[in-house]
Structures
1.
Amino acid sequence: MIVLGSTSEVAQAFVEKALQEGEKFEKIYLFTSNKETTERFARHIDVKFLQQAEVIELDLTKEIDYNRFENINSNVLFCAVGYLGEGTDEGLYDNRNTERIIAINYSKLVPVMNYFAHKFESRRSGTIIGLSSVAGDRGRQSNFIYGSAKAAFTAYLSGLRNYLFDKKVHVLTIKPGFMATKMTEGLPLNPKLTATPKQAAACIYKAFKKERNVAYVLPVWSIIMMIIRNIPEFIFKKLKL
Amino acid sequence: MKPNFTQKVTNWGNFPVVEKEMRSEDNFKKIKEFVLNHNEVIARGNGRCYGDASLGESIFSTKKLNKFINFDRLNGIMECESGVLLSEVLEIAVPQGYFLYVTPGTKFVSIGGAIASDVHGKNHHAEGCFSEYVIEFKLMTENGEIITCSREENADKFWATIGGMGLTGIILTAKFKLKNIESAYIRQESIKAENLDEIFKLFDESESWTYTVAWIDCLQKGKNIGRSILMRGEHAFQHELPQNFSKTPLRLKKKLSPTVPFYFPGFVLNALTVKIFNWLYYKKQSKKEVKNFIDYETFFYPLDAINDWNKIYGKSGFIQYQMVIPKETGKEGMRRILETIANSGNGSFLAVLKLFGKNNTAAYNSFPVEGYTLALDFKVNSKLKSLVDQLDAIVQEFGGRIYLTKDSMSRSSLTNYLKNIQNPKFVSLQHKRIINNNS
Ligand SMILES: Cc1cc2nc3c(=O)[nH]c(=O)nc-3n(C[C@H](O)[C@H](O)[C@H](O)COP(=O)(O)OP(=O)(O)OC[C@H]3O[C@@H](n4cnc5c(N)ncnc54)[C@H](O)[C@@H]3O)c2cc1C
């Protein structure tokens, strides 16, 4: 398994879930911008599951040397890369903030995804799982830079799924709603709408096994987002969402 | 939306409930920042202490310190971060033929919590406290420094932290020994006792057993006081197991745990229902003596089988009162305690009696001393404080101690411990309560 964004608690929970379910991987490639934390995770799964893992540094804001990835092959790619940045109130007119959000969530990420998608395509097998966001379903005033990058990522995954369909590679888009992770710690989230990383991992694993195309982590989110998508624009623009 | 880390926090007894800042981090640098940026910090593991021991002005939750570091499978030495739960250790250890030397009555306790409370199990008389098997741990001190503590290195901090209730710093990682087992099953004998004299006799006769514990029906009066069931057990060897267990002796089948879905309304637990519960529990075993093999989960963690059982006590919560009375006068002390409870009509669902062996004097902050220990659950109501006061008076008269990790209402001056801990940075609500009560 190749994991992009390995410090993500959801990614780690997914890896554990898959191993608990008895999935076997020759090696798990943990791509990360934080080597120290990820090395701890690598040791953890070695102790817990005798699973070998390799930690590979990847900083999406820097130049990427693809030669380093030449020998990396797997049947599953899990991408949990995500960067919330500052919300619109504080960060809309801060160009560095905007650029970082777009780079990490979309523009610098997609070439890396494509690099591995190409390998999957040539092998004619495998699953690519991408964590997008409900924020990408409709732009809202509170975080639309992030939302727009995720919207682009969602569109990318949808197109990739279409493109790889007859090449026997499956693409799964995950749209988590609120999750109790580092990204959201301390925010007043409604517990009924908030999934723990463990819950999220279980949902994602199920969607992976069932070869779903698009899955919301908690089912209520598909209803909430259906409503939000269908509010007429002339009303929506007046809402404080 | 700016983060606001203030939230409602409460421990296993749902009493007291506080609204305080609570945060969790897995990055040591960020933990250091947290410690340096707050005046009063207290670590919290899985909140399985009953009262206010892991509550404070700024709470550092070890939930995210949940990684394993190393498992020396040859020598049974485990190293992990302090937020790892005993249940997670067992998941790895048991299939490999290892078990915890010492485990409390729930496996949902963190390693940090087990060290800070120096927990005991049903085997204190034979194998002592959790700390006996701790090789070393890493502690973050008030200036954010990380030090290694063991019997050789920083030994003063090592012993102050054991049973030190989080008041010396934040335990980050720990290394400890595991014991060998041949199976995940326990050879058990349960024996009914009609009264206190009989149960004490049974304890004496069971001294050679590794695990012993008794459940007491504490609403009995007069000559029936102390009516109870003694359970004693040993890790079963593979060759003695019945056939249906012996094929995969180290693996248990998955069970589903029922969950208590909501807080029970207050009237559900009253003197009558407790009486019925205790009667049923006692009558369930019709024979005087039963010998069988049961899996370790059922033997060590019968209460874990029902998730969130603490909600049975309703929103007002409950306390656990656990004391130890030294051996010489222990029997008499227990009788007085049980009489007082029976007369109060304030019944306890759960009354557990255990025997403590000799204590490790080096671990001076640790709770156990040689004698009898009784743990009782009481629903919080208006009459409870006066019952606790009466019980405290008896404990004092008999030179006993209160177990801090369960306490939230006692005159905690009844503890002669928390020595060598005067650290203005690491402060719990419990600690403040003790200081205020004493002045
Ligand atoms: C059903 C049940 C049965 C129990 N049976 C027993 C028993 O048989 N024997 C027994 O001894 N106990 C028993 N207990 C009590 C329990 O074992 C202790 O309270 C244990 O300390 C709880 O661990 P925790 O991880 O939940 O820690 P918490 O409850 O969160 O904290 C307990 C104490 O440890 C400190 N602490 C926690 N983590 C750290 C850390 N990383 N660094 C420094 N300090 C820390 C806290 O500050 C606090 O003082 C039982 C509890 C329950 C709910």
2.
Amino acid sequence: MSFIRKPDIRYKGQRTNALGLTLRDYEGGMSTLCAGCGHDSITSALVQAFFELDIEPYRVAKLSGIGCSSKTPAYFLSQAHGINAVHGRMPAVATGANAAARDLYYIGVSGDGDSLSIGLGQFAHAMRRNLHMLYLIENNGVYGLTKGQFSASADIGSKAKKGEINEQRPIDPVKTALAMGGTFVARGFSGDKDQLLPMLKAGLKHDGFAMIDVLSPCVTFNDHEDSTKSYAHTRQFYHPAVHADFIPPAEPIRAGYDEGEAVPVQLHDGSQVLLRKVAPDYDPHDRAAAMSYLERHEQAGEIVTGLLYIEEHRPTMHAINQTAATALRDLDYSVLNPGAAALAELQKRFR
Amino acid sequence: MSEGTKSRVNDFVIKLANVNGTGSASANSLLMKAIFRMGIPVMGKNYFPSNIQGLPTWYEVRVTSDGHTARSGSVDFAVAMNAQTYPQDLAEVSPGGYLLYDSTWPRSRVLQRDDITVLGVPLAQLCNETFDGARARILMKNVCYVGALAALLDLDLDVIRQLLEETFASKKALVAGNLTAIQLGYDYARENFDCPLPLRVEPLDRTAGHIMIDGNTAAALGCVYAGATVGAWYPITPSTSLMDAFKAFCYRFRRDPESGEKNYCIVQAEDELAAIGMVLGAGWNGARAFTPTSGPGISLMNEFIGFGYFAEIPAVLFNVQRVGPSTGMPTRTQQCDLTTCAYASHGDTRHPLLLPADPRECFEFAVNAFDLAERLQTPVFVLSDLDIGMNDWMVPELQWDDSYVPDRGKVLSSAELEQAEQFYRYTDVDGDGICYRSLPGVHPKGAYFLRGSGHNERAEYTEDAEEYKAVVDRLLRKWETAKELVPEPVVSGAGNRLGIISVGSCDGAVREATELLAQKGVPLDYLRVRAFPFHESVRQFIDEHERIYVIEQNRDGQLRTLIINELEPDLAKLVPLLHYSGLPIDCRFIVREIESDIAAGVAA
């Protein structure tokens, strides 16, 4: 049997959120990924993010394409609808779904194979439209399901498990997102939940396309000594540029550091992201500076992480379209039907 | 009609040869509309090149008191405005016919034929003397020949004047200029030729209750009335005008003029792969969504179409067919995507096709398509073609029944889910192959995981042989249910030995050909399929006839292939009669082919 249902074990004194739901209510089926897979850590962070944001699970639509990462929506929010689309084309499905009902939370989980090869166009155009969704790239630089080929994010000089050396330039989702006009561009590491969790929460609350590239080492095909996407390599060259703290609407800001070291960013529902700057001169509102910062550190062999760019007020797809506030799918037919009289009147011009 | 062009009232063909990009389309449309307004049935077909300007383009106007909708296959009056095609235009005119050309540059040597009358009108000269500016002079040349035709054919100048006033209601200055050009041509013809010609029009009363409309506009109206709210597309000839029209109608009917709020969302996708993905996303999420495209677009959409079939998501695809294979001839017509749409995508797939014959059916079938897609929870194709989609057709006025209620199919509401003990997405509760579905965000009990990979009736991933087979076998049960839901064929005739099966835009030519053949003592019955899967009556029709001509517009007999594949009839009975030049089929072709088959003795 290829589907493993997770046992629903409840115990006394479980923590509940404002909806009275436990963390278990935000979980999904049993993961069938390899033991130790970075993707499972991201799943766990997502479960916690939704739980802590008090989002009703069934008001979330989970979307993915094809690949190891794309399996993960089955492992969280079992009470949410999920769709496992075709390779690289999840953004289009998300766009259509969002067009039909703008009032749900949309989360897309993709991978480097899914988003940066066949899906590169759709990834770019979803950002261009500023589609309102959280879009995760679980990035391991390798194709896991087909057993170890390089993906488009594999670094030059990185070595495959079977010894082949990658000679092609990688496509960096973060730099791509900056270039394509992404309004929320972040990078995290599956091994650093403390940094990832607030970024996920902020991404879910961002009114627009929130892209988080999460480095997520593949324990089976890309965690060896010569890999540049292994746990060891990522930890060694990990460079957190900006730490994000997520602050829900009603809570006061209690920053554990000096004024001036933190930039509060107001999100559309009144919540805030507090960007605690590790680099003293980092400005997360300056797209060009973000790009140059990335380039500089990349040349130094460092992997920059954090919420690297945010633009809070760029109109989303629906704002540009001026779509009605009510979800289109919920509009009554009487509102949509112009009626027989209008048809008769219209046809006068066809005579 | 080959017998020549003597006294021909309300029954002739004018073919206008122009250069693409010179603004002739509006002049030609004015000519056709004027005839229509005089109460005379008329048909217009545009043969245009796939480029912006400079190449030859033709517009054919058939004046037909009998109301025929197809090409006759002859030309009685050529308006030769394109020097590049003079020889071809001259050769096409039937004996006894006429040719009008711009005699500013005399062509007495080139335009010679003893059996027709060549009429020279110095259009450029007249316009150069009257109008300023190069662009105006070029445009007015076209209006000027409409004026000459008005005198030669006895068109009503008041009707033309009224049409111009309506067309340029917001640009009054243009009315005067156009009227001047009309008068220039009119006066010249009256002074130099015997007007009217034996070939002429006389007012009739046969267009009341009718409109002139193209299929793409009618289909777009159908989408509006069906309650479609999401349209995703990538521009491609000849389907582009469908979304243009939908956008314009939505702006008129679905937008709050004060707030600007829109009850619709149209997304111009980055490509066809994305367009169909968006439609499926919207369909999964409960909106009525569609995409217009053509053959190459369908090729790109294939993977997602299979996904829609297996995951069971409603979607409507309009395929306005053009000439294939590959890029083919983008601005020519064919019916060459029947098989590719019927079985689109890899694996065992089958998709309902709706096959309109004219713009009126485009309107009706658009509405049917959304009902069927949601009832059957599957992608549904409306297969129109360039001839239907982009040409102006005279059809009875479109009707709408305000009591219409969209068939949203088996969608469980929040209250129903609340009541339900357990919901499984792919369980065939009713035995008709159609399962109940739930929409995202409606109720926690409705949640399921949708995928294009193997799943069981509980929507769980599976590679179990029996569970897989149970799902694909149920899809066949759904296919059987579909047969009862799709539009029935139109059958005419009275138990003759010979029959015709045809489809879509062949209809006008087939109906005219059967009339002509009946007059010649060859009576034939006629069945027009209007949908795939085939209705049971198609099988009956085949059983009841000895020899059946399967008439369609493609090289390989795709309709015949589908019939053979699905109904397994006696192959020898089905005679393919194929027209695939890219021009719309004409009745002459059908008459000739059937007569020659009979003459060969096989059908005797």
